[in-house]
Amino acid sequence: MTTKKALISGITGQDGSYLAELLLLKGYEVHGLIRRASTFNTARIDHLYQDPHEQDARLFLHYADLSDGARLVTLISQIRPDEVYNLAAQSHVRVSFDEPEHTADTTGTGAIRLLEAVRLAGVDTRYYQASSSELYGATPPPQDETTPFHPRSPYAAAKLYAYWITKNYREAYGMFAVNGILFNHESPRRGETFVTRKITRAVAAIQAGRQEHLYLGNLDAVRDWGYAAEYVEGMWRMLQADEPDDYVLATGTGLTVRDFLDESFSHVGLRWQDHVRFDERYLRPSEVDALVGDPSKAHAELGWKPTVDGRALARIMVDADVEALGHAGSPWIDRVALATWEAA
Ligand code: NDP
Ligand code: GDR
Asked: What's the ipTM?
């Protein structure tokens, strides 16, 4: 049996790290695109790292950026992957209002650069596009594969382009190119500025006496929160199907931000009302009020079914953040530098 090769853009992100881990477990050779940065940005995958000089190494990292199409063509031509997962994006909805053009370039145009790289390299590759429930935006729930889109942010508008261009490459060139329309999914590896992780980190810090208040925006927003590890398995299933198609992955249950707060704080015996403060800077110029997905098609055709709901997820994340606080301090705090400045 030949080893399958997968290429993951966004491997250093939440989903990329879980997907890499899953594919390595399945026996894949995994190639990840990483961005050159002045500090290491591979913390989520460091535990998977193998010295590429070792005979049995199956994880390989390559410098690349979705803004550099020529580099993508070179890499796809050299690696000749069986599967490409395009997970890279400027993925923060609020930030997309501050950096709309950058978001369009990475989150939208980035997809066409990667699709073109696959086409120009002439490889027989299956392509997964990380599409989002944000596409539905103002269209009320429940949302499924037939629900009309109404994006409400530069991020969602960029993802809309990526969604349609993926469909277009399927129709125009017969590529096995699919959209996973994923509702919010979280984990202990979730970025610290998304609302769930912001809450669970704060719960751990407040319980430890290191923080008193947590500043948040809209508590009424409804989201369908699932567990990222289960969702990356759904991505893989989409690329194993007989025919390319687009699928919603969701739990089918919505919670408000307030519900998530309640579950997280009460899990350690705290009351969120004693700690949460409002800050308007976390409001968006146009908000998405409610997203609740209907994952019936993925269940019927791919056999995919999530088991962790939003409340269970909150408890998993709080436990992980409480445990993480017990570990050695943050590497960002350089005590030597602080002492040097104090002495100066
Ligand atoms: P993260 O923000 O955790 O990760 C984003 C990844 O994209 C990081 O590896 C980042 O690299 C990389 N990246 C950003 N810009 C570029 C660029 N210009 N070139 C190359 N790589 C880049 O996102 P998630 O893991 O949460 O999400 C994965 C994908 O799924 C994203 O496309 C997101 O929009 C989409 N999505 C996520 C959902 C969720 O609930 N998590 C739901 C639906 C869709 P670096 O580490 O260097 O910053
Ligand atoms: P979202 O996730 O915008 O749904 O996008 P986020 O966790 O940022 O916001 C969810 C809801 O919480 C409200 N909110 C706050 N959000 C943040 N980040 N910080 C706050 O302080 C805060 N207070 C309230 C927001 O207004 C919003 O209604 C995520 C990303 O992963 C996208 O990439 C992905 O496509 C979608 O999920 C599905």
From this structure: 0.99
